[in-house]
Specification:
By secondary structure, the chain is an alpha/beta fold. The chain is built from ten helices and seven strands. The protein has a seven-stranded mixed β-sheet, with helices on both faces.
Length: 234
């Protein structure tokens, strides 16, 4: 295996915010193993990438949400697409616990979770295995010296391109104009992505299956305008 999550890379976000409540700790201890992709990896021979068709019992297509927050959008997509598999990646354990709390009364067989750095997940995923990827309101890293930490740079985009199928969508939502600027610059110059924009509505209107999260609603209340971009893996 290229890189093991047991030897994590440096990450720049908190693993835990407010102290976890007993119920949240219980979700992580008892509910997370049900969805944890790393639990499934114990059955994967060393040096091989994870068998996603085995994990999802032949569900197709398989999508990935990077940084799912509290999981509202992930659950929304899982309900809309019961025949497809969804992988949620999130390092912030408060958010993971929040999602698990929402899942506790129903078992979603089409959801898998990864609670480590997304670059470690990239190392585990097979080539051309993701048909859609969501990057929704990522950490803006507003200071210029931190721009390299933003997801939309080659350190993330190159392995992302490897795991996406030809024609797959990369959906990005942000309320930060400078994040939008960098995303457009980096993805337009990347040889494996294209932004098929035709009019202003292509970034002003949300997707038909969009679920507006609490974070987005807060951004709108505070006067920030959402931007929705769809890039295509070519």
């Amino acid at each position: 295996m290229e890189h093991s999550p047991t030897k994590p890379r440096n990450i720049y976000v908190k693993r835990v915010g407010r102290k976890l409540r007993k119920a949240q700790q219980s979700y992580l201890e008892h509910n997370l193993p049900v969805y944890d992709l790393l639990q499934y990896l114990t059955h994967t021979p060393e040096g091989q990438r994870i068998d996603l068709q085995g994990y999802f019992k032949q569900l197709e297509p398989i999508w990935l949400e990077i940084g799912f927050g509290s999981g509202e959008h992930l659950i929304h997509q899982a309900k809309l697409n019961p025949n497809g598999g969804l992988i949620g990646c999130e390092v912030f354990l408060n958010g993971v616990a929040s999602l698990l709390g929402k899942l506790q009364n129903k078992r979603f067989s089409n959801i898998g979770l990864f609670t480590h750095d997304v670059r470690d997940l990239f190392d585990l995923l097979p080539d051309r295995s993701m048909s859609r990827v969501f990057l929704l309101y990522p950490d803006p890293w507003p200071k210029k010296r931190h721009y390299r930490r933003r997801f939309v740079n080659p350190d993330f985009l190159n392995p992302l391109a490897r795991i996406m199928t030809k024609g797959a969508e990369l959906r990005i939502a942000t309320d930060i104009p400078d994040y939008c600027r960098q995303a457009i610059e980096e993805l337009n110059k990347h040889p494996q992505f294209n932004w098929p924009v035709e009019s202003m509505s292509d970034w002003q209107q949300s997707w038909s299956d969009w679920y507006s999260t609490r974070y987005e609603q807060k951004a709108i209340r505070e006067g920030r305008k959402p931007i929705y971009m769809t890039f295509i893996r070519i």
